[in-house]
Amino acid sequence: MRRIGATCLAFLAAGAAAIAEPPRLTLAPCDVPGLEVKAKCGTLEVWEDRASAKGRRIGLKIVVIPASGPERVNDPYVYLSGGPGSASTEEAAFLAADFAKIREKRDLLFVDQRGTGGSHPLSCALFLPPGDLQAALGAFFPLESVRKCRSALEKDADLKLYTTAMAADDLEEVRVALGYDRLNLLGGSYGTRAAQVFLRRHPASVRTVTLQGVVPMNEPMPLHIPPWSERALRGVLAECAGEAACHAAFPDLDAEMDRVFAGLARAPVKTRVLNPQTAEPTEVSLSRDLAAEGIRYMLYTSGSAGDVPVVVHQAARGDFTPIAESALFGRLEIVDSGSNGLYLSITCAEDLPWFQPEEAERLAAGTFIGNYRWQQQKAACELWPRGPVPEGFQELVHASAPVLLVSGMWDPATPPANAEQVAKGLPNSLSIVVPHGGHGYDGLEGLDCLTELEAEFVRSGSVQGLDTACVQRIRRPPFRTEPLDLAVIALPESDLARFRGSYVAEGGPIEGSVELIGGKLKMTVGSDRPLLLAPVAPTRFRVAAAPGVVVEFALAGDAVVSATILQSGQQVLKLVPRPGAKKDASR
User: Fold this and answer.
1) CA–CA gap between residue 257 and residue 495 (Å, rounded)
2) 380-418: per-residue pLDDT in tens?
3) CA dihedral 252, 257, 258, 261 (to 10 degrees)
4) Are the CB atoms for 126 and 336 separated by under 8 Å?
5) Hey, what domains does the chain have and what are their CATH numbers?
6) Residue 492, SS3?
């Protein structure tokens, strides 16, 4: 590895100086939506400019879910979220359930990275005006929105001071303030970069590292999005071809895919989508670029990837609604839901400057994604301040800490080859490839295997002796072969009213409710925001803003027996009416 230069040494020294004296931090009991037990919450103020240690101070939002058992050890499990731009604390309740075994002896620690969530967020709307569905199906980073975003955020933030290295030093300051010995890091997607940076800058503060969806330090996003998405798409289509029922239903998928994008290259198509705010059908224009994004978003999770063959088949026959709704979901629920200012501050400093247009064009040629993404992101970064990146930032991280690397076989964003590259600097590491896996694995069968493996890794603090045999038993359910029935029907309010009431998960503590408001059904499950339901059959409803998600009610006479939530045809949750609950009045 190249010798670290004087600039980097000075940068490191400044970070160390800023945390030389243990900062003061008091946590207070708090309620986390969706979490049954009390958590502890607090805010730690740090210097926005860590190098000078003067000027503006910003607050870091912290949530600690205490260990559940009596034998607590002082090295918590720390989640570093993806994006960049996602807020770690928003995943606290979900991960508390997912990592219950880890929590038996260890606190779960969540710190919103500077610029996200409750830590001086750099948030601004990209697709303007809000609610304009066609605007959301336009440029990835509309330049006028980027200009407005920068102007608004610079009133209260130095946009050059929100980088991964600075966030890593923030986390070390939190560790010191809370008195933890070492940290067990869990990084997902961009969070794997954050974990590697922390490991390099604070190696003595790390006990274990789990990397899911691995981003190498020298990977300039979005350079490889086109070829990696192409690889994932062709892999999923090949799995369909190898499954008898899927192949019989769709014997010519590759040709259909090529035909769909050739047609879109000639001209956009008009199609109808379900408005996520009103659940009313709305006509939009779908371009080739956004159709490609719609397919790419479906590839991100294994469950929705299982719908790709039928969605491509429907598009080849003129029905573009499923692809358009996937593109809309990605834009509104993924791209525009995080801290877009932080996304730009990170990628414009750490990614876009490090690749040449000629290389980007070469990698995009002949792929279904094409070149639009890198071109539009580059244009946005030309309008954004560029923060400092330490010398040697892109070099391979070398460390002796035990590291577990987990990759999805058909991940369109972080393929298994990434983990192989990162592992070269980690002699005490183990790499696992999840069969059929995307960037996320929801929808696969046998995922308890991964949860158990990660818990055992953290418990033992070593990759030695981990039994990974169960990974090969992870399976994809059969591909969907029936067309997605997305046509909304009208139902009288008297029919809708019978679904109102309070519900509870079958065999679990999750609560839910269904209300009838303004002639529309709204379902709330746990702490999630209400789901707007649109009927496609008398007892079957689509969920607006969530393609592939439906709710099926079962009736006995006129009484509801159950409400089952399905995603990509697979059951996610089954709710039953709460015993003794009375229906609320219609409002």
Assistant:
1) 40
2) 999 999 999 999 999 999 999 999 999 999 999 999 999
3) 150
4) yes
5) 6-119+161-220+391-471 (3.40.50.1820), 493-577 (2.40.128.50)
6) coil
